[in-house]
Amino acid sequence: MKEYMNYLRKVDPYVPGEQPNLPNMIKLNTNENPYPPSPKVKEVWKQFSQNDLRLYPDPTSHKLNKAIADYYGLDESQVFTGVGSDDVLAMCFMTFFNSEKPILFPDITYSFYPVWAKLFDVKYEAIKLNENFCIEKEDYFKENGGIIFPNPNAPTGVELPLSEIEEILKHNPDSIVIADEAYIDFGGQSALSLLEKYDNLIIVQTFSKSRSMAGMRIGFAIGSPVLIKALHDVKYSFNSYTLNRMTIEIGAAAMADKAYFEETVQKIIETREWSKKEFKKLGFNFFDSKSNFIFVTHPNYNAKDLFLALRENNIFVRYFNADRINNYLRITIGTKKEMETLFDFLKSYIK
Length: 351
Ligand code: PMP
What we know:
Layout (H helix, E strand, L loop, with lengths): L25 E2 L11 H8 L15 H11 L6 E4 L1 H13 L6 E4 L5 H8 L4 E4 L19 E4 L11 H9 L6 E4 L20 E6 L12 E4 L2 H12 L8 H12 L1 H24 L3 E2 L6 E5 L5 H10 L2 E2 L1 E2 L9 E4 L3 H14 L2
Parallel strand pairs: 1-11, 3-4, 5-6, 6-7
Antiparallel strand pairs: 2-8, 7-8, 9-10, 10-13, 12-13
Helix pairs in contact: 1-7, 2-7, 3-6
The site of 4'-deoxy-4'-aminopyridoxal-5'-phosphate has 12 residues, from helix 3.
């Protein structure tokens, strides 16, 4: 064996959901938005010329950061943007989680957290969700090197009430608490209102779900200017030009189109609430979801078998072969028509 083999970095990478590209498939496996992004995106897109790619982009992403700050009534110094919230979260791990004490996150959660923890050599403790797949806030009142959780949680879709997030913040004045709000726009209550009171709070959101731009890769963090500056310092020590020119312009245009955003989010919420009733009729169980997916299980049918049967029929959902959740399927909310096709199949499967 060559000696250099001893020095290769060995990691167990995060496994993203599959991205098949089949005609007529129904893709409900990676929580994408079934509707296109704002029409304003196309208008800006069309204005680009080949020459625009010649120059480096603005390393500060000023236009996009300002659009996000304006949308939420914040100062630009409170906003950090990155290549999807995965990039932003990875930067957060590097910037904020450098204590010798373990960071805390739920055992059933976004499976990228333990991957980053290992990559950046951060000690962590995965805290068990209760039997209803809810976070018990008291579990997060002990000593720690930081806290992170998605709200609503993924893949469960369960929301942690704002009052409980505040309790966690109150008990952890010396730790950074990150609320990963990838799915917050689908009916959850954002922790943004707690920003003024708690300087240890970081909120991370994405354009991938509620703003229909998973392919563009935009995520952002909001926090105190001190913490956001720390994030920028780490970013500029790693890669100055993370967002490209088109992304900055298009992201800013999408952010400004509030009416379109609200309309599509509302459609998804309506389809989700209708889907909950359909799942119930077919005997599925699930915890109440405030996201653009539902995490379902059936007492009489094996989730993996159903996952494979759906796949055979060009309907892609997500199955996790992990402790406590290996009889569940996470099903993204598609258009009403896509969900009707899903339920037609399920009705024939569940006799
Ligand atoms: N956080 C959570 C909880 C997620 O489910 C996802 C989507 N995989 C992300 C962050 C990252 O999304 P993106 O990088 O597309 O913003």
